[in-house]
Amino acid sequence: MKNLQLSKIQKEILIGTLLGDSSLQTYSKNRNTNRLRFLPKLNQKEYIDHLYEIWKNWVLTPPKISNY
């Protein structure tokens, strides 16, 4: 993956969502690979789409809806 740096808004969203509806996860296969996982409520599609637009240069796949 290309060398990326967080923008100011991405830093602010990262901090804010970690206090709310996101978490940082490490993949067990490769300890150098991490992900930021957003877990908003299912009825917040516009919010999810907005976050995707802000993070799309970091994202490998578009948002998915999980029924957990």
Helix/strand-derived category reads alpha+beta
Distance between termini?
30 Å
Sheet with the most strands: spatial strand order: 1-2
Radius of gyration: 12 Å
Count, helices = 2
Task: Describe the protein's architecture and organization.
There is one protein chain. This protein has two helices and two strands, in the order H-E-E-H. The model has no long low-confidence stretch (mean pLDDT 81). A hairpin with a 7-residue loop joins strand 1 (22-26) and strand 2. It has 68 residues and is an alpha+beta fold. The protein has one domain (8-55). The termini are far apart.
Structural features:
single chain; 68 residues; alpha+beta; two-stranded antiparallel ribbon; 2 helices; 2 strands; 15% strand; globular
Short description:
With 68 residues, this protein is α+β, with helices and mostly antiparallel strands.
Give the helix/strand layout.
Blueprint: H1 8-18, E1 22-26, E2 34-38, H2 45-55
